[in-house]
Amino acid sequence: MSFTGFPAAALDFYDDLEMDNSKTFWTANKHVYEESVRAPMVALLTALEEEFGAAKIFRPYRDVRFAKDKTPYKTAQGAFIALGPATGWYVQVSAPGVRVGAGFYEASADRLARIRTAIDEERRGSELEKLLADLQTDGWELGGDRLKTTPRGYDAGHPRIELLRHKSMTLGKSYGFEPIIHSSELVDEIRRDWRATAPFLDWVTANA
Q1: 69-78 burial by CB neighbour count: b if 16+ within 10 A, else e?
Q2: Which tens digit of pLDDT belongs to each residue from 56-84?
Q3: How many Cβ atoms from other residues are within 10 Å of residue 179's Cβ?
Q4: Taking a C-beta distance cutoff of 8 angstroms, is the pair 195, 130 a contact?
Q5: Which CATH number does the domain housing residue 36 bear?
Q6: 187 part of a folded domain
């Protein structure tokens, strides 16, 4: 199956699921999920696999064992291509449309310490700073979990203190409801955007 876009039914499915996140709804509409969400996602990732690698498509079921929120189903279909531990490219479809991302979503204490050492160093830190500035100028949003305080061992007046506060670091871009998400042209759009973030991911994997 070649990718021809996500149908409007994919967005409608998640819009309805947000209103009725129940097994009854899921059972009655599972065919919509399989045909309008999962199948196009598989086709999209297959088209991108040769350049970026194989993706992990996340299960639609939530792990509610230790969660206060007991709703059983995720309200987005995501997929991740790993370049390193918890580092790589991301894509999802949900009620608000299609969104892509890149970065690292968590890091061990040792790995985070190495990243902060690199950010602290003038050459490597300035390189990351420029990469992020250029991507943000192109419409990417910088996100991730951050400390509210100053990381131990660093000065609050450090020129890159905001980057040093990151415990994870991600870049995201939304295509929303744009017509491109319903067409085969989405493959090339994601390819261009993921390529643009490759230097950032290379920096992370080289310095983590």
Answers
A1: eeeebbbbbb
A2: 999 999 988 887 888 999 999 999 999 99
A3: 10
A4: no
A5: 3.30.930.20
A6: yes
